[in-house]
Each structure stands twice: as C-alpha cells, then as structure tokens.
C-alpha cells in the first residue's frame, strides 16, 4: 500500500468515526459549524456572500447576511450528513428516505428502454441520491477527480459501492457514458458544475452568464435517452427524493437553446430553498471574452 492509499483510507476511517453519529446529532453539529464559519467569515462565507450579491442584488445587506447564515448552516449540515452517507451501509442510508416524489417519471423513463440521464444539481444531498439510484440499477457517475491522489482514493471508497461506476470528468467522458446508455443503463451528471473552456457554453443562470456543461444535452440528443432532474431534499428525520422531467428542448439540435433551458430548470430547483443550493461554490469564475467581464471572486474570496 503506497502513501496515497494509506492516507485515503485513513481519511475514510476518520470520516466513519463522525458518520456513525445519529442523523439528528450530525445535523445539530453541522448547523453549529456553519454558524461558526459565518461568524469567522471563512472563504466559503465570502463566496456565498458574493454569489448572493450576483444573483440577488436587490437584497438589503441585512437580508443578505441572514441568507448567507442560512446557507452556511445548511452547508454544515450537508457536510456531516454526507459523511454519514459515505461511511454507512446502503441499507442504512436508504432507511433515511421518507418519500419519493415523481417516481412515475422515473418508471416512464425506464420503460422507454433507451437508457436514462439523471441531471443531479448541487441541491440537497446528492450523495444520498447516488445510493438511491445504485440500489435500483447500475449507475454510472461522472465525477471531478481530486488534485491529490489520496483524495481520489477516499472518494472511490466513499462512492464506489455496488452498482456504481465512476467516470472522471474529462474530455473522453462521453465514451463510457454513451456505452452505458446504449446498454440501457442510467448515468448521473451534475448540470451545474462549471466545465473547462471548450466543455460548455455560456448561458444565463440567475441572470448572469455562466459557463455551463454541454455534456447532458449532447448525450440526450445523440442517444435519445430521456433526461430527469433528481435531488434528495432534507426533511424531518431524513430526506425526500424528487424526480422531475426535463424539457424535450434538452434533446434538441439547438445546443444553445438546450443549455439555456437546462439552466432555467436548475434555477427553478435551487429556488425551492436557496439555502439548500451549493452557493459556497464559485459558479461564475470563468467569464465570456467581453469588455467588463472579470472573475467576480478575485481577490476577495481566495
């Protein structure tokens, strides 16, 4: 076992020590941690604040700070919930699910027998969604590989359970995804992960141009596979799973229209509860080559 393997496994063992606490305790601790992060004005706090300045400029300073605090508390809870999901058995995780909304859309999509694309925004606990999907059928998941190999070892231990195939988010990701869909499988992609230049197009997201992944519309257009949005939303004592059909526009030949429509639909999900969306992520760093455009997070949020 090399150093990366050792440290990755050590990180997983440490996560398991936290993850075995009851969900109620984890949520309480996560909320306290988020409150502390807000008070200390951490980098995540600054990013969330800047994002709210971008998407909701009309908010008063007081209302913005109230919302930033809610985002940080929800982020803290989500982090500790995720440690639980990553380190407990699938059966234990599935017991957290209280209701499944829109399951008829899921069944109808599978009945088409053309594969299924799950667009999973960074809303709620997407790690529990992975467990839910893999419990039903083989699930191919696109993920961003951590810079350090120990981090990749950790993620593969955390996510690499039965029925889960991990595909690095690289330029050749299309090939294994296409094969999975051709075989009638289900693939999961985050529609709101900022790609590298060349991996997407700019489209409005909460009123500001955001470089948006083009992989989902391209796969949908070429494969004919239906697209569903899916997310795990926190509720009392657990989570509710939601499935929502994507617009047929996503599978159309007009890529620009498809990407813009996808952003509109992801935005509608995020607006269910802004605190549950990952506003600690720098969504708008890469900018169009236009006058006046610059990285809105530099230098204050680094």
What topology does this entry show?
Layout: H1 3-19, H2 23-40, H3 43-55, H4 61-87, H5 90-94, E1 97-101, H6 103-111, E2 116-119, H7 126-134, E3 139-143, H8 149-159, E4 164-168, H9 174-182, E5 186-189, E6 200-205, E7 208-213, H10 215-223, E8 227-235, E9 238-245, H11 255-270
Helix pairs in contact: 1-4, 1-8, 2-4, 3-4
Question: What do these coordinates show?
Answer:
One of its GO terms (molecular function) is acyltransferase activity. Helix 1 (3-19) crosses helix 8. This protein is 47% helix and 17% strand. The protein is globular, with a radius of gyration of 19 Å. With 302 residues, the chain is an alpha/beta fold. Strand 3, helix 8 (149-159) and strand 4 form a beta-alpha-beta unit. The protein has one domain. The strands form two sheets. The chain has a seven-stranded mixed beta sheet. The chain has helices spanning 3-19, 23-40, 43-55, 61-87, 90-94, 103-111, 126-134, 149-159, 174-182, 215-223, 255-270, and strands at residues 97-101, 116-119, 139-143, 164-168, 186-189, 200-205, 208-213, 227-235, 238-245. The model has no long low-confidence stretch (mean pLDDT 94).
């Amino acid at each position: 076992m090399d150093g990366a393997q050792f440290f990755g496994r050590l990180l997983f063992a440490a996560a398991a020590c936290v993850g075995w606490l009851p969900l109620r305790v984890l949520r309480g601790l996560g909320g306290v941690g988020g409150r502390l992060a807000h008070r200390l004005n951490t980098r995540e706090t600054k990013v969330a604040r800047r994002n709210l300045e971008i998407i909701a400029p009309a908010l008063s300073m007081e209302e913005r700070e109230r919302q930033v605090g809610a985002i940080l508390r929800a982020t803290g809870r989500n982090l500790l919930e995720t440690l639980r999901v990553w380190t407990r058995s699938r059966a234990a995780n599935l017991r957290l699910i209280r209701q499944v909304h829109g399951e008829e859309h899921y069944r109808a999509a599978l009945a088409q027998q053309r594969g299924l694309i799950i667009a999973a925004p960074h809303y709620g606990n997407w790690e529990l969604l992975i467990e839910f999907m893999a419990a039903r059928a083989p699930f191919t998941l696109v993920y961003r590989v951590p810079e350090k190999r120990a981090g990749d070892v950790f993620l593969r231990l955390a996510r690499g359970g039965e029925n889960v195939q991990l595909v690095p988010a690289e330029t050749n990701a299309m090939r294994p995804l296409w094969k999975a869909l051709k075989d009638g499988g289900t693939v999961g992609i985050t529609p709101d992960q900022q790609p590298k230049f060349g991996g997407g197009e700019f489209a409005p997201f909460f009123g500001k141009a955001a470089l948006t992944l083009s992989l989902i519309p391209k796969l949908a257009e070429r494969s004919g596979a239906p697209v569903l949005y899916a997310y795990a939303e926190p509720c009392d004592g657990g989570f509710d799973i939601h499935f929502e059909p994507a617009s047929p526009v996503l599978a159309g030949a007009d890529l620009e229209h498809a990407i813009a429509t996808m952003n509109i639909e992801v935005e509608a999900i995020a607006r269910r509860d802004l605190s549950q969306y990952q506003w600690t992520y720098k969504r708008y760093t890469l900018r169009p080559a236009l006058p006046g455009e610059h990285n809105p997070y530099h230098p204050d949020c680094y």
